[in-house]
């Protein structure tokens, strides 16, 4: 199997490509617009597409305040809001935002739980945590690490500045995985098996302190499940699966998948083996 090295990393990674630059689409048409050129070779000048912003906070007054302020900026288009993490994940699929302003403490699903999942659902999406807990004691790391953090109470200008910065600094840890061809029926069976074992896997992960790894794997399976459903509507079999994600999330998903052995792991075949060969 061909193995490529990631620039700046010592370990070889199979079937992984670091995505450089800003052009193109990695997931569901999500594209990062840029206001000016930088040292990363991005396209200069204002694009015809505004930066689509999703605001996620359980307080309606905070959402309204942020939406009002960001609509004063000519570069931003506030396309939607969400009151908790579960709503945020659904909105990401529906609205295809480029930027997400994300609170941490929310009912139903917290901001920390959202980040590992959306990294595969929309790998180019830039996440700015806007919370009273932002930047406190290295709280956000690993799969939960956002693209930027701004503490509530510091005013809105620092938030606007970070959002504008992200427009000209695309994420540098994007990876593109070539998972390979998969028989559609076998893939659908593996997807159904994941749905059945999901609660059990989540409990095991929580008991072992692997919640971040589990959520990273959730994002992978959600993304591939959509790809398989799309293939089913057209009757394509085998379907060639590809996945965009962030490097640390891909590694975490691999750790979680490796830990799923025995009967549970067998139920996910042959998708599990394909993923283990492709994930970094």
Mean pLDDT score: 84
The termini sit apart by 14 Å
Q: Could you name the ranges where pLDDT drops below 50 across 5 or more consecutive residues? A: 1-14, 20-47
CATH architecture of the largest domain: 3-Layer(aba) Sandwich
Which class of secondary structure composition applies to the elements?
Answer: alpha/beta
How many structural domains in the coordinates? 2
The largest beta-sheet arranges its strands as 5-4-6-7-8
What shape does the CA trace take? Answer: globular
C-alpha Rg (nearest Å): 19 Å
Reading off the top of the CATH hierarchy, the class of the largest domain is best stated as Alpha Beta
Named CATH topology of the largest domain: Rossmann fold
Helix content: 40-55%
Question: Could you give the count of β-strands?
Answer: 10
Sketch the topology as an H/E string, one letter per element.
Answer: EEEEHEHEHEEHEHHEHHH
Classify the beta-strand content into a percent band.
15-25%
Count every helix, treating DSSP H or I runs of 4 or more residues as helices: 9
CATH fourth-tier homologous superfamily of the largest domain: Response regulator
Largest sheet: 5 strands, parallel
Describe the structure.
With 280 residues, the protein is α/β, with parallel strands linked by helices. The protein has 2 domains: 29-169, Response regulator (Rossmann fold); 175-278, no CATH class. Helices cover 43% and strands 19% of the residues. Strand 4, helix 1 and strand 5 form a beta-alpha-beta unit.
What is this structure, in a nutshell?
The chain is α/β, with parallel strands linked by helices. It is built from 9 helices and 10 strands.
